[in-house]
Amino acid sequence: MKPGNIQTQIEKEKISQLIKETIDGGLRQRVIDEVLDVWEVIAPRIREIAEWALVELREALKGLVPDEYLNEPLSKLPNDLVYFLAMGMERAVNKAFELAVLGVGEKVEMTLNNFLRMPEVLESASLPEEVKKALNEWWAMYREQFTFPAGVFLLNDGGIRVCVAYNTARLFAICAEECIRRGKEEVSCRERCKDYLAAVGYGAGLARKQLQEVLDSRGIKHSNVDLELGGIKYACVDIEKR
What we know:
2 domains, 5-stranded antiparallel sheet, 7 helices, about 70% helix, elongated
C-alpha cells in the first residue's frame, strides 16, 4: 500500500470511529427513548384503530367463516399490531442511523480520494478547451437522465478520470429495508436487491457509454476503468492529457 493510501485509510478509520462513538455513546438510545415516549402517547389510539378494524373484519366475515376459525387469530390482532409497530419504530431508528453513517462514509470516501464533483470540474480553468466542451455536452445529457454522483479524479500523469459513482452498501440497505417493509421474506429481498444493484450498475455503464460517444465524436482519446473503493463503485473513463 502506498504511503498516501495508508494516510487516507487512517483518516477514514478515524472518521468512522468518531461517528460510531458518537452514535453508540448514548445518542442512538436517547433517540429511541424519545421515539418510544411519543409511541406511548399514540399507542392507545393505534389500539382503538385495530379494535375497530377487528369489528369490521368480523362483520364482513359473519356467516361466511365459522367463529371457531376467527376467534383466536382475530383476538390477537390489536396486541400484535401495537407490538410490531413498537418494534418497527426501534428498528427504524437503527436503520436511519445506519443509512446516515453509510451516506457520510460515501462523502468521506470520495473526498479523501480527491473526487471532484462535476460542476466544480467544469469551472476549472486548467481543463483543455476541447475536453471541457465534451464534458459540458455530456453533463447536459447526464443531468436529464441520471442521479449518480459524477466527477473526476486527477491523475498523476496530468490526465483526468471521469467517473460515475454509486454506493453499493447504501443502495442495498435502502432496497432491502423497503422490500422487507412491504412484507417480503428477507431471503427473497436479498435476491431482489442483488438484481437491483445489477440494474444500477447497468445504468452507470450506460452513462459512461454516453460519455465515450461524446469523446469519440470529438476525437478525444480515452479508455475504460472500473474501480471499487470501500463500498463505492466507479464506472470511469480515463482521458489522456492533451
